[in-house]
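go over whats below:
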Amino acid sequence: DHRPSRRRGAQGRAPLAPAAGTVQIIILSGLSGAGKSVALHMLEDLGYYCIDNMPAALLKPFIAHTVRSSEKIYARTAISLDARNSDAEISSVPMLIDELKRSGIDCEVLFLTAEDDELLLRFAETRRAHPLSRQGETLREAIASERRLLEPIAHVADQVIDTSRMGVHQLRDLVGRRVDPRAPE
């Protein structure tokens, strides 16, 4: 899935409790090797409270906690979700995102992707194992499995970012401009 970046409007939002308007949540997901760690570190540098690789089953209770909390630390929260969740857990994420947006919570989904050949190269350079690689499964098969598993999140993303031809600094700049439009071009 190599769709261009896109932005959806925020129509149909209904007001929620007053505390909800003070919370901004970014859900960051995407393929392993596409730059989620780089993007999450950028968000942390911008002052977001960041959680890496949260189990999707804990997403709803954690967001409920942040919305109800009077702690300013949660006012801007970024949560990374990866493919180490079950199909059912991943499939529940789009409904939760829709519920958050309809309730008036400022929730944005960023999804990072890259071409297979670029991901293969990145894994070869880092010599890390793919999180979905199983005994006897090739890296290319693991990437294909991950694409299928994460498709429900990619489908509801406010922005899909293809990092195939981006360096680390370009991705950091893009994420920075996305969450803080005042950032220099």
